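re: the backbone from monday

yeah here it is again, tokenized this time
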């Protein structure tokens, strides 16, 4: 990923926060048949390995797990993003030498991918993934709420994914390369948007 120094994110807690906040990641593997990609929720175990380890699962019918990865896999996490109109820049009225851009946050995690079918490991992954997404609900659903034989049958239809993170690239492009006047204007413009995603991005534009 092309990451100019001004946009490089190096704070581990901020990187992990982006990964945890992402609702869906994309798992990419290079295989003898070409690149394969699956959108899937992943959870991060930050205490396992230097950069943490990612866990999730794919459908057993998904051919990606049957194709041996050639080298490391890539998990892509997207944070807030927003279109930035040049109309907000002070230079528009001065000389017109402005163009549109896109602000965004993203994390690229690289590491060896392991696919597994062990039922106990699968159950642990499904339970942790469920708890992660159900935890904030008033009445969270748990895997144990369903009959054990039903859960066992469901587990036979999926394959687990484990990826210890060997390398991370993180990028936070939020108008850091613009002057203070432009950053204030971008923040204000995005904050007034009717789109909640724009307002989320506004909060990340530095002062």
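seq for it, each position gets an aa:
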């Amino acid at each position: 990923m092309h990451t100019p120094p001004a946009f490089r994110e190096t704070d581990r807690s901020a990187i992990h926060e982006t990964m945890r906040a992402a609702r869906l990641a994309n798992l990419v593997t290079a295989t003898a048949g070409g690149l394969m990609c699956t959108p899937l929720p992943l959870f991060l175990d930050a205490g396992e390995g230097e950069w943490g380890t990612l866990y999730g699962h794919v459908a057993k019918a998904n051919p990606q797990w049957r194709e041996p990865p050639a080298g490391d896999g890539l998990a892509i996490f997207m944070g807030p993003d927003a279109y930035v109109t040049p109309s907000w820049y002070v230079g528009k009225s001065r000389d017109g030498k402005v163009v549109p851009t896109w602000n965004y946050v993203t994390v690229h995690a690289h590491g060896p991918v392991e696919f597994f079918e062990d039922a106990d490991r699968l159950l642990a992954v499904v339970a942790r993934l469920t708890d992660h997404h159900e935890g904030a609900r008033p009445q969270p659903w748990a895997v144990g709420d369903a009959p054990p034989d039903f859960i066992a049958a469901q587990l036979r239809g999926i394959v687990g994914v484990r990826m210890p993170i060997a390398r991370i690239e993180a990028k936070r492009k939020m108008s850091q390369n613009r002057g203070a006047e432009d950053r204030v204007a971008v923040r204000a413009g995005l904050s007034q948007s009717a789109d909640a995603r724009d307002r989320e991005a506004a909060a990340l534009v530095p002062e």
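The radius of gyration is 20 Å. The chain has six helices and nine strands.
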